[in-house]
Amino acid sequence: MSLEQGSIVEGVVTGITNFGAFVELPGGLTGLVHISEVAEVYVKDINEFLKVNDKVKVKVIAIDPKGKIGLSLKQANPSAKSARGTRKPKFEQSFEDKLARFLKDSDERLADLKRQTDAKRGGRGGPRF
């Protein structure tokens, strides 16, 4: 089967790296889906979106003279946000909640630091000679 730029084909994920995923296409050819072409959202960890042996629909976006094939998941599925869906946190914290947590953590760290320095100095209320 000959591939053409712009065609949409199905393939199987054969390998995952920190920069993308290798997909085996019909005819035994292998192409790369760069991490920037996995989803419409920012992809920090590709493992959240793809696993080895996943069947995926990809669009051929480039074929260079050396035979390297560039693929895209997000262009093959324009209506979907990603191959598996966007994983969002269960709830979004408001700014006030984040600020309150930061202040609490900061106070705890300062109290720990103060305890450590007081212990090195001999603590408070110790006898002075």
Automatic annotation (TrEMBL):
Cleavable signal peptide: none
Keyword Cell inner membrane: no
GO molecular function: mRNA binding; structural constituent of ribosome
One of the Pfam families matching this protein, by short name: S1
Domain of life the protein comes from: Bacteria
GO biological process: translation
SUPFAM superfamilies referenced in this protein's UniProt entry, alphabetically: Nucleic acid-binding proteins
Residue stretches making up the S1 motif domain: 6-74
GO cellular component: a single term: cytoplasm
Sequence similarity: Belongs to the bacterial ribosomal protein bS1 family.
Name of this chain's protein: RNA binding S1 domain protein
Organism, scientific name: Desulfotomaculum nigrificans (strain DSM 14880 / VKM B-2319 / CO-1-SRB) (Desulfotomaculum carboxydivorans)
